[in-house]
Specification:
The structure is a single chain. Helix content is 45%, strand content 15%. By secondary structure, it is of the alpha+beta class. It has 2 domains: 154 residues, Gyrase A, domain 2 (2-Layer Sandwich), CATH 3.30.1360.170; 58 residues, no CATH class. Strands 1-2-3-5-4 form a 5-stranded antiparallel sheet.
């Protein structure tokens, strides 16, 4: 599966990938001028050892590239992994790349994430952040209609500004930002992807980004079944 729909209008799509479990093995074995032509039980044991002992550089020779369409509230959480990549991987350069569509240059029709009545969540009982159980349907319905009206008002003002000749990069200020869908390419090493998954599949991660993390996992695991399994068990979270 190369594309999975997420939320009401979003998706994750695999654009390309480089490598396999065997790539990890051969990157590790090159130190001894050895190479495997097919994945063996011995190779699987090596991958488990590398992940368990924190020898992570071989996992950075495998690459995944995704196209992602998600609300801004998800995109800005995700962006932190690009910023933090160089630090946690112990390298001088980030092994992630991010290129996002820009409303400075394009004026495609704005699309917004609008939770349905049953999707609104209340405050958590024992934490200052995150969310708790679903609120009453009637309250959710109220805020679905409130958000639809607010979003529509901003959209009308955005379109009016464009029609009056205001530049796109300033007209976009009228758009309801956090629910606005944005599209980007995310290219990352296998280790970076696993680090993202370890954190955003956790039960206390924001539900919306957890949904995207599940899609990333579903697409990635068939490509690197052994490595993903071991990294999700052993990566720093």
């Amino acid at each position: 599966m190369s594309r999975i729909d997420v939320l009401d209008k979003g998706y994750v799509r695999l654009v390309s990938h480089m490598g396999s479990d065997l790539t990890v093995v051969n990157a590790a074995r090159v130190s001894y001028a050895k190479q495997s032509d097919a994945l063996s039980d011995k190779d699987v044991r090596l991958i488990k050892f590398l992940a368990r002992e924190g020898h992570t550089s071989p996992f950075r020779h495998a690459i995944l590239q995704f196209e992602i369409y998600a609300p801004l509230l998800v995109a800005r959480q995700w962006w932190k992994y690009v910023i933090g990549s160089a630090h946690y991987e112990g390298t001088g350069d980030s092994l992630e790349a991010w290129n996002e569509s820009s409303r400075r240059y394009v004026t495609e029709e704005p699309v917004f994430h609008i939770p349905e009545a049953g999707e609104w969540r209340g405050k958590p009982n024992h934490s200052k952040q995150g969310s708790g159980a679903a609120v009453a349907w009637e309250l959710g319905e109220k805020y679905t209609h409130e958000l639809m009206a607010y979003t529509e008002l901003g959209l009308q003002k955005y379109e009016a500004a464009l029609a009056d000749g205001i530049c796109a990069e300033q007209a976009r200020l009228f758009l309801a930002a956090y629910g606005l869908y944005v599209r980007w390419y995310w290219t990352a090493s296998l280790q970076s992807v696993a680090h993202f998954l370890n954190q955003r599949l956790e039960h206390d991660a924001q539900q919306e980004i957890r949904d995207y993390a599940k899609a990333i996992l579903e697409i990635s695991k068939p490509l690197f079944p052994t490595a993903i399994n071991e990294l999700l068990t052993n990566c720093e979270t």
